[in-house]
Amino acid sequence: MIEPMTVAALHRAYSNGAISVGELLHDCLARARNDSHQAWISLLSDEQLETYIINLADHSPADLPLYGIPFAIKDNIDLADLPTTAGCPDYSYQPSEHAFVVAKLIAAGAVPIGKTNLDQFATGLVGTRSPYGECHNSINGDYISGGSSAGSAVSVADGQVVFSLGTDTAGSGRVPAAFNNILGLKGSIGRISCRGVVPACKSLDCVTIFAKTSDDLAAIWPVAAQFDEQDEFARLQPELIKAVAPNFKFGVASAEQLEFFADDAAKSCYHQAITTLTEMGGQAVIIDLAPFSQAAKLLYEGPWVAERLAALREFFSAHQEQTLPVIQTIIGGAANYSAADAYAALYQLKALKRQADQQLAQVDFIVTPTTGTIYTIDEVKADPITLNSNLGFYTNFMNLLDYSAIALPAGFRQNGTKQGLPFGITLFGPAFYEDALLSIASRWQKQLPLPLGALQAQPQTIDLCVCG
Amino acid sequence: MIEPMTVAALHRAYSNGAISVGELLHDCLARARNDSHQAWISLLSDEQLETYIINLADHSPADLPLYGIPFAIKDNIDLADLPTTAGCPDYSYQPSEHAFVVAKLIAAGAVPIGKTNLDQFATGLVGTRSPYGECHNSINGDYISGGSSAGSAVSVADGQVVFSLGTDTAGSGRVPAAFNNILGLKGSIGRISCRGVVPACKSLDCVTIFAKTSDDLAAIWPVAAQFDEQDEFARLQPELIKAVAPNFKFGVASAEQLEFFADDAAKSCYHQAITTLTEMGGQAVIIDLAPFSQAAKLLYEGPWVAERLAALREFFSAHQEQTLPVIQTIIGGAANYSAADAYAALYQLKALKRQADQQLAQVDFIVTPTTGTIYTIDEVKADPITLNSNLGFYTNFMNLLDYSAIALPAGFRQNGTKQGLPFGITLFGPAFYEDALLSIASRWQKQLPLPLGALQAQPQTIDLCVCG
Lengths: 468, 468
Fold this sequence. Notes:
Number of helices of chain A: 17
Number of strands of chain A: 11
Shape of chain A: globular
Distance between the termini of chain A: 27 Å
Mean pLDDT of chain A: 95
Largest interface: A-B, 31 and 31 residues
Radius of gyration of chain A: 20 Å
Strand order of the largest sheet of chain A: 1-3-2-4-6-5-10-11-9-7-8
Largest sheet of chain A: 11 strands, mixed
Helix content of chain A: 25-40%
Oligomer: homodimer
């Protein structure tokens, strides 16, 4: 086993003959079959995997940037080999072709292993809203994995694949990254094609990438983020912002605007992260988080939920009772909103975006906790709506405001009942800011060489690196 | 009287002492008071006008680009001197300050004369939907002026002011230009501030400018199109596209996709316009008008009408019966649309925009008739919905697709029952293309020196210039 399993490490191992592509991929598939987190909904057969291995026979890392790199696909993204369920067996369909982004990754040499578990219809931030089982946290199985891209994050953290695809509407590409000690890159709306993806809120949805290092994200991003003329929400990068200057300004909220839901250990980790950014050459600037928080509320308390109904109207009207009760409650609520409500909320959002942009313009990027806290599976079962909503406090506004963001591991809680669980921060900037975020992420990982994922982050190693 | 009354002609007359600012402005106000078209809802008092004249005392054309230039304001745009009615007496309110764009024009030396008649709540393309009287065409009073910016177009065409402000959601800044032999510039959404403007469809509304020459528009545009940080829909010009090349490509629809509603004389004028553009150095390229036409249908047959309800919800629920029956029918229909409908239509629009953009990308601009035909006031009375809808055939898609457009006079019908009535074409391009459209408009007016407005376009002169 190659650990840490990164693009560079695998390419080295392939090149020096330490392992063959076939051995590595079958090993990954075997580990996925033995997964104990309920991370997967379906996996390739050995025969299906063999086809991919054969297709790589005449290639090498020299001509394919993702040659022989195993990846997982959230099960709301089409892979022609397996059904797409979106976490709902009755909704399941067999796609005739790969999603655009999946096809691009495969063409670059990456090899899919299977489809991962998710909150049903990508509606949730917890990872427990699935008839395929609650997805367990990769570091402490009593805890939630985070969602909705639950299995995608866990399969990366647990070393079953190098990277995975998730989706992110309200935070699904960031929350599970924080909970599993990995990175999550949520690019700008329209940078990764959503063609072949089951919509959640189609005007906000992003396909995201989970990986253990910023180097991996930097290798995968240009392959994944290819313009798709046939995706009506696809956008071309208008200009290039390649890096953040050595001495940079980063925005932070004042103490009163932060919310840790009584998780003091998380709060300590956050403050340590601010210190680390300062040590990297950053200058903290207090910004007003209010317009961001107000936009966040609009997403869950406003008419955007009707996008979820618009996406599923036909299925939902015929099969409502085949969806989870919590999903019925959420999507069913969409019927209360009129078109006039939708436009009125759009106007509110436009005004909030103007205010938020003014805050963002003062700095190179803003940093927040990815989530204020984390919950056990039992806690979420007892209060599924409120606790889910708490997890979106720092994430819900991101796509509404058209920002790009990266979730980064930022150490482990040192004390309290949640000791040992990972903590994450999110850096965000304007649309099309992905390259700049990747550059600062690279500097972050050099400054703070944490254990990667879950395999390195077991209790015996955590002592070495509490909160950086 | 200075005729043609343009910015340059007035500035010459002021500079050489042919007329004083006071004389000219009081003369304009007197002519507006004698207007026979029902173009005005309210006019300044002599005392109010005098204040503006006094404020200009220490200035000249050398320091104020619009020094002493009289203009009219559509009565859905705030002028602090007069109430804003939006064409509905019960809605009327007294604004405490000028609309942002009005303030900018006044600061540049322009002087408002009064507030002009409009289709109630800017809902219509006819100019007859007003309790302040049907606005009559400036060239043939049996005909409609076009709307909703009815009085704004007529007051310019009839030589009562040099320019005027209109608004444009579905075509209101272009249709009345075509019907009154003047120009109408509909810039990109967000280029002219809409703060202090009664919303129609807030996400689509544009403030527009009517004038008799492209030179006037070029003088007024940079004053009017100043970024307003407090308008949540305001946008900064991202790049400069200054002019169209001497040899250019322009898009035209195939014969089957054009619609003149049996107005053969208009059809002849359109084909003559294509010939003129070719003589100017243009090469006609057949493009597919279908995605544009489909987007146009979405505006009137889709949920965007709910924006009109969202804008007026409080007033409309309490005072519905104080609006015109046709307005009650239209805005009342908004209640049928759900938020899910609104998002579903947005997705359709996004797909159509991708297709339309592909057509536009083949050429420097696209040219269409501004309208296929024109109607008498009696015809519109007999069939107010369908005929209004016909007038939007070439205009309804423009703001939905986020394009900029200019309506240009293109000659007069040579024969048929509508002989002598003006015909207009519209050139359009992507967002932020205003300078390029102005450059081609200037070349157009040099190539085709038509009589200007209504005063030069009386029957005895029209023979000289039939369709160019």
